């Protein structure tokens, strides 16, 4: 199988899978919107989640629509273009629809990572020092993504060559490192809280916040795994890179939307919490100091 054919198949499969996950994102957003709307308590964060979720879905719709348009133009309208599908896509990398799609992808990544950073800050008891390094990584990744977009928009250039490619690789690498640290920090915190509080609170009380599913969702593990897979295929120059790149924006939406769904369901960690403070009195609970943990009981 030629490299060109392998890339075309990968792109076709990626777009197909992306369309399926896009449908899942739409359904999840509608369910989340309904759950947020029926809650009697009206707060500013509730409005924020409505707007945030809508913007995520809007940007994702732009990504999916521009990808489908590019596919139609390459495979159907201009299938006899010199160099085939790959030749057409490369020659029109700076077309308006591709530029719009790139802006939407960068926006999705920035918004998704911002929520990840906020959730980590929240779970670590509003500790700035705990997330300071992550904050630096976040802004560095955003800066690289913007530089990639600006460099790729220059006349005679695109995001697939020159400095734009280098900025893009740095952006992806920083994003992967950021995601790994976020996942590890949140998972560690939730597991640590469970091990401490299981001696004080019933398992049924802790389960919504420290169960396996809760840790997977709260730590953004699926998004991190997709990012790692994308980085690996990118380094190996595997055709699978094209498919993952097509699917990746959907996970930029799915991961935070799952968090918002948990918030709307009243089982996510939030600022509106019950503070469970206890003093450890037995060796197995380690510290002899008062430890403050939060158990979310209501939507922010």
UniProtKB/TrEMBL annotation:
Segments passing through the bilayer: 12-30, 51-75, 95-118, 130-149, 169-188, 209-230, 242-261
Alphabetic keyword roster: Membrane, Transmembrane, Transmembrane helix
Species of the source: Coniophora puteana (strain RWD-64-598)
Protein name: Uncharacterized protein
């Amino acid at each position: 199988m030629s490299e060109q054919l392998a890339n075309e198949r990968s792109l076709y499969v990626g777009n197909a899978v992306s369309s399926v996950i896009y449908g899942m994102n739409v359904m999840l957003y509608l369910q989340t919107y309904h759950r947020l709307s029926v809650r009697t308590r009206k707060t500013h964060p509730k409005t924020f989640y409505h707007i945030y979720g809508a913007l995520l879905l809007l940007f994702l719709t732009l990504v999916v629509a521009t990808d489908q348009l590019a596919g139609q133009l390459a495979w159907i309208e201009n299938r006899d273009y010199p160099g085939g599908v790959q030749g057409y896509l490369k020659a029109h990398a700076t077309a308006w629809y591709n530029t719009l799609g790139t802006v939407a992808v960068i926006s999705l990544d920035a918004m998704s990572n911002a929520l990840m950073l906020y959730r980590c800050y929240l779970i670590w008891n509003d500790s700035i020092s705990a997330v300071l390094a992550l904050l630096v990584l976040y802004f560095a990744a955003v800066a690289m993504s913007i530089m990639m977009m600006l460099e790729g928009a220059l006349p005679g250039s695109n995001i697939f060559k020159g400095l734009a490619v280098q900025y893009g690789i740095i952006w992806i690498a920083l994003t992967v490192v950021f995601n790994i640290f976020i996942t590890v920090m949140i998972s560690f915190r939730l597991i640590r809280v469970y091990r401490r509080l299981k001696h004080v609170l019933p398992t049924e009380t802790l389960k919504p916040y420290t169960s396996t599913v809760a840790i997977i969702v709260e730590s953004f593990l699926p998004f991190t795994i997709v990012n790692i897979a994308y980085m690996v295929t990118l380094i190996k120059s595997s055709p699978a890179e094209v498919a993952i790149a097509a699917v990746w924006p959907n996970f930029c939406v799915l991961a935070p939307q799952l968090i918002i769904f948990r918030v709307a369901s009243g089982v996510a960690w939030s600022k509106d919490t019950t503070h469970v403070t206890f003093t450890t009195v037995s060796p197995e609970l380690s510290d002899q100091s008062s430890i403050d943990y939060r158990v979310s009981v209501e939507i922010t």
